[in-house]
């Protein structure tokens, strides 16, 4: 393994205790540095963060360096003439005169090598400091006359100064996260009645606005899903969503859910009351049909002798049976299920409710656990969730009952998960391989636990009333629209929203802007194409929901305008950033996961300089060959945790030396 970093600290090269020991130094390296920075302002910009001048062994070189830096600070050129003038006639002779400055220029093989020699000068300065510190420690030991406590303290102070981290020339490293700073939910993008209420609920419950904001989208999707669709230009999207909020326990999720879903419960009650006469009539008609079928079957079995009469009785019984099968009793309206929802229950509800259903639960981990096979011997069953998101056909097979086919199932999900459940989703390969993870609009808000206000502002009564009135009306009106389409003979397609020409152009622009984000190595969505591939479609769905929420009272059949589309794009970027954080948390990006492993190795081994081969040998279980380390090294370099040491100058032919990397001082202390 390569030697550790040598850090420079100020020393006095004229100190007899140092110079008398033949301390490490290289006059030639110092000359190359000074000549290179006088030749190239770019090299000076690279070298200045590494050196402060005290690292030069010769006092004359320290003087020249300070003059060069003073000129650079004023924006003046640092050529030999200017440097000589800056030093002044009185001191110029002490540094070797003007000819020496020109000699420094002439000795430089290439200005680009200046950074390499600057590292050498810094390393040698640190080596001199080690020598001087050793001399001081020896002197402390010889002069110790009292107890060992004072001596230990003095030795510890000397060693602390010697081993202190030196972060000169290093930028502050950024966390190894695709999205180090997560935005808050843009409440202002919601329709006014929904945004104001969501903000008030967040205030009164002292919860992140993300929770109420995401639920506002989920309840809009419940109202619209399966009742309205949207044409994006070259394809059609349903209007249901899968929204997941990740929050630890104790964040009053149940209170927020109760407040946000209260109007839906009221709408469901009204739908039940409205359906009662129709259900009662259907029950009576069903009983009559059952009695008729039973009577005709009995008559058919009792008819004997007359072949013609037997055929007539059999035909009559068959017709009665067919009539019975065509006389269903509609299920009581049910808009959504809660924490007790299972895959089987969801499938049954979709079949009962004409392909429209939602799961809104403050603790939805069980639902995904069942889908992932936790309670079925590891057999994952995600077909309902996959088809229910896309509005596709679902066949429901149940023991002892006929199969049911849902032509276009539209399921909406609005649930909370605890962070550990999210991690387990990442550990279940089927969730990603089958595409469920990519269908989730994930929010990972910051918990307010420990920072909550004990005297929050109550929800203004007019805000609560407007939310209840508007959402109830939206749910009922869109439900009736969907029912009308389904109950027509033959069934008619549900209404389709469109975009204005300006908004349609913006949809195409988003498609074009999103495509490069999938490029390997450079795209921020390259490691999560399963999610990114559905970003534009999700944005189209959100735009439709915002449009419906804004235009309930003045006609939602108008085209979606550009302002609404722009609000949807903001929400799409919000979910993109949070999805990146979620994918990062579950280790979905192999390069980031490898980079974390490298940082852990640097911390455990206190390695400060290394090559890719050193890394491969240190992490044999992770990197089979040297080139396997490249993605992790690129991530660490771009985040400021490592940097490539300039290669030494080469002459002649031959393969260049493998690059050497230097670790940020913080990398050997804390793993981010």
TrEMBL record:
<keyword id="KW-0238">DNA-binding</keyword>
<dbReference type="InterPro" id="IPR036185">
    <property type="entry name" value="DNA_heli_DnaB-like_N_sf"/>
</dbReference>
<dbReference type="InterPro" id="IPR007693">
    <property type="entry name" value="DNA_helicase_DnaB-like_N"/>
</dbReference>
<keyword id="KW-0235">DNA replication</keyword>
<feature type="domain" description="DNA helicase DnaB-like N-terminal">
    <location>
        <begin position="24"/>
        <end position="123"/>
    </location>
</feature>
<dbReference type="GO" id="GO:0006260">
    <property type="term" value="P:DNA replication"/>
</dbReference>
<dbReference type="InterPro" id="IPR016136">
    <property type="entry name" value="DNA_helicase_N/primase_C"/>
</dbReference>
<dbReference type="GO" id="GO:0003677">
    <property type="term" value="F:DNA binding"/>
</dbReference>
<feature type="region of interest" description="Disordered">
    <location>
        <begin position="644"/>
        <end position="672"/>
    </location>
</feature>
<feature type="compositionally biased region" description="Basic and acidic residues">
    <location>
        <begin position="663"/>
        <end position="672"/>
    </location>
</feature>
<dbReference type="InterPro" id="IPR025048">
    <property type="entry name" value="DUF3987"/>
</dbReference>
<protein>
    <recommendedName>
        <fullName>DNA helicase DnaB-like N-terminal domain-containing protein</fullName>
    </recommendedName>
</protein>
<dbReference type="GO" id="GO:0005524">
    <property type="term" value="F:ATP binding"/>
</dbReference>
<dbReference type="Pfam" id="PF00772">
    <property type="entry name" value="DnaB"/>
</dbReference>
<feature type="region of interest" description="Disordered">
    <location>
        <begin position="1"/>
        <end position="22"/>
    </location>
</feature>
<dbReference type="GO" id="GO:0003678">
    <property type="term" value="F:DNA helicase activity"/>
</dbReference>
<dbReference type="GO" id="GO:0005829">
    <property type="term" value="C:cytosol"/>
</dbReference>
<dbReference type="Pfam" id="PF13148">
    <property type="entry name" value="DUF3987"/>
</dbReference>
């Amino acid at each position: 393994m390569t030697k550790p970093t040598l850090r420079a600290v100020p020393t006095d090269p004229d100190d007899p205790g140092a110079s008398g020991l033949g301390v490490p130094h290289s006059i030639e390296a110092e000359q190359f540095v000074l000549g290179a920075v006088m030749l190239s302002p770019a090299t000076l910009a690279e070298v200045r963060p590494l050196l402060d001048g005290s690292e030069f062994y010769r006092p004359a070189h320290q003087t020249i360096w300070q003059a060069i830096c003073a000129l650079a600070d004023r924006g003046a050129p640092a050529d030999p003439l200017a440097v000589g003038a800056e030093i002044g006639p009185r001191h110029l002779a002490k540094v070797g005169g003007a000819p020496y400055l020109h000699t420094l220029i002439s000795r430089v093989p290439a200005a680009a090598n200046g950074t390499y020699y600057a590292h050498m000068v810094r390393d040698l300065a640190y080596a001199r400091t080690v020598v001087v510190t050793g001399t001081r420690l020896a002197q402390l030991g010889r002069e110790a006359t009292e107890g060992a406590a004072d001596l230990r303290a003095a030795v510890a102070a000397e060693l602390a100064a010697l081993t202190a981290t030196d972060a000169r020339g290093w930028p502050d490293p950024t966390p190894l996260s695709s999205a180090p700073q997560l935005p808050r939910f843009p409440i202002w993008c919601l329709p006014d009645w929904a945004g104001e209420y969501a903000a008030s609920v967040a205030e009164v419950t002292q919860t992140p606005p993300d929770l109420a904001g995401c639920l506002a989208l989920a309840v809009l999707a419940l109202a619209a899903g399966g009742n309205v669709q949207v044409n994006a230009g070259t394809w059609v999207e349903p209007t249901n969503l899968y929204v997941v909020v990740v929050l630890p326990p104790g964040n009053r999720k149940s209170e927020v859910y109760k407040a946000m879903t209260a109007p839906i419960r009221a709408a469901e009650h009204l739908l039940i009351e409205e359906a009662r006469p129709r259900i009662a009539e259907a029950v009576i008609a069903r009983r009559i049909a059952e009695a008729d079928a039973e009577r005709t079957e009995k008559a058919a079995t009792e008819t004997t002798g007359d072949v013609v009469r037997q055929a007539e009785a059999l035909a009559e019984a068959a017709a009665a049976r067919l009539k019975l099968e065509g006389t269903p009793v509609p299920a009581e309206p049910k808009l959504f299920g809660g924490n007790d929802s299972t895959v089987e229950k969801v499938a049954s509800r979709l079949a009962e409710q004409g392909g429209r259903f939602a799961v809104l639960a403050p603790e939805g981990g069980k639902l995904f656990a069942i889908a992932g096979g936790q309670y079925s011997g590891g057999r994952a069953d995600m077909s309902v969730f996959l088809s229910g998101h896309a509005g596709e056909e679902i066949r429901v097979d149940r023991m002892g009952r006929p199969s049911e086919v849902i032509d276009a199932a539209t399921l909406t999900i609005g649930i909370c998960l605890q962070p550990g459940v999210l991690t387990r989703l990442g550990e279940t390969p089927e969730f990603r391989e089958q595409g469920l993870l990519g269908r989730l609009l994930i929010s990972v808000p910051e918990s307010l636990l420990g920072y909550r206000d004990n005297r929050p502002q109550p929800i203004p009564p007019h805000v609560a009333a407007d939310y209840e009135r508007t959402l109830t009306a939206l749910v009922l009106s869109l439900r009736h629209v969907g029912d009308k389409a389904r109950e027509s003979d033959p069934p008619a397609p549900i209404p389709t929203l469109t975009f204005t020409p300006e908004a349609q152009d913006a949809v195409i622009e988003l498609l074009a802007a999103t495509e490069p984000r999938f490029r390997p190595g450079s795209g921020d969505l390259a490691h999560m194409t399963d999610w990114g591939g559905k970003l534009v479609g999700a944005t189209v769905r959100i735009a439709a929901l915002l449009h419906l929420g804004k235009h309930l009272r003045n006609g939602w059949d108008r085209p979606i305008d550009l302002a609404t589309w722009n609000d949807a794009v903001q929400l799409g970027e919000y979910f993109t950033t949070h999805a990146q954080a979620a994918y990062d948390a579950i280790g979905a990006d192999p390069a980031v996961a490898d980079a974390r492993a490298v940082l852990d190795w640097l911390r455990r081994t206190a390695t400060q300089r290394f090559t890719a081969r050193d890394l491969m040998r240190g992490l044999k279980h992770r990197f089979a060959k040297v080139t396997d380390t490249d993605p992790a090294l690129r991530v660490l370099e771009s985040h400021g945790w490592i940097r490539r040491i300039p290669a030494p100058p080469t002459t002649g032919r031959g393969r260049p030396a493998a690059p050497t990397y230097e670790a940020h001082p913080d990398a050997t202390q804390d793993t981010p």
